[in-house]
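Incident log, support desk, overnight shift.

02:14 A customer reports that sequence design results differ from what the structure should imply. Their input is reproduced verbatim below. On-call engineer (initials T.W.) acknowledged and began investigating.
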């Protein structure tokens, strides 16, 4: 705990220049293409600025996001970067999954997050959409923030606002699921109260900051899973106050005490929940599609 609270010294990375995000009107089903085009243009501008700054890695990441095939509801190339990407026909989707990532997810590492979203969308099939929501500054895995709720408390209002906007696009009849991974489960735990979604799945969770599923104060079904080879099982699922800072996130969501619907995730590791052909991906697809009776339990 002391290692988390006491800052460690590290070389600061120079700030990468980038334009302010595109100014958009509130997104509706009829203005999605307009938003996609504006955000691609913003990513292209960010790529040029990063290249001029000499950061080839960020320039390449931004350039990839500016590809005409990409569909972003939002893009911000400043700092570690934020982006919200859509897979599928959002305006006509009956089932929509929103993925919330964990630590060390930035524009440079976004490819691995995107791969999981693509794998899920491929598994779901037609009539569905997947949203890769990198809408907050994630903590570093080795950092002073990864075992505290600070980043999650900043992210939760953004996630709640996004779900409200998303519901305005997809309508009341669409089935919305929130799939949260690692530190992303802390974000979802903070945002859960009153959230207009049907299901919340907690994957590889260090804890949510709540003692139980009931304490999340949500009408959504709460699911939890952990792969047999996930190192997060070795993280103490507890919380303690140290020098005025709460360290840790409390009850293990896959424990009986938490009260979630625990489902099978196979023998995968911490980064394998969206691996094509995996038990966890199959079960996540069933949750998103509303086939809850077909979900295999742990």
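02:41 Re-run completed on a clean worker. Output:
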């Amino acid at each position: 705990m002391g290692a988390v609270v006491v800052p460690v010294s590290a070389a600061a990375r120079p700030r990468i220049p980038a334009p302010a995000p595109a100014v958009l009107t509130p997104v509706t089903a009829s203005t999605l293409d307009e938003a996609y085009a504006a955000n691609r243009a913003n990513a292209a501008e960010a790529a040029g600025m990063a290249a001029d700054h000499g950061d080839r890695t960020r320039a390449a990441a931004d350039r990839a996001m500016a590809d005409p095939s990409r569909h972003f509801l939002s893009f911000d190339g400043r700092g570690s970067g934020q982006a919200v990407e859509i897979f599928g026909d959002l305006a006509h989707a009956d089932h929509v999954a929103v993925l919330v990532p964990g630590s060390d997810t930035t524009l440079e590492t976004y490819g691995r997050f995107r791969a999981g979203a693509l794998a899920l969308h491929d598994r779901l099939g037609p009539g569905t959409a997947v949203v890769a929501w990198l809408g907050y500054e994630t903590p570093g895995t080795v950092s002073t923030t990864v075992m505290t709720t600070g980043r999650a408390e900043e992210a939760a209002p953004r996630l709640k606002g996004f779900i409200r906007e998303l519901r305005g696009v997809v309508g009341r009849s669409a089935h919305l699921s929130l799939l949260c991974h690692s530190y992303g489960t802390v974000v979802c735990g903070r945002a859960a109260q009153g959230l207009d979604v049907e299901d919340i799945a907690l994957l590889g969770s260090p804890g949510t900051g709540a003692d139980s599923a009931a304490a999340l104060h949500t009408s959504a079904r709460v699911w939890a899973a952990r792969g047999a080879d996930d190192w997060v099982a070795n993280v103490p699922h507890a919380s303690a106050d140290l020098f005025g800072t709460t360290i840790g996130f409390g009850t293990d969501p896959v424990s009986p005490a938490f009260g979630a619907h625990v489902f099978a995730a196979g023998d995968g590791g911490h980064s394998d929940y969206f691996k094509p052909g995996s038990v966890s991906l199959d079960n996540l697809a069933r949750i998103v599609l509303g086939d809850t009776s077909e979900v295999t339990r742990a």
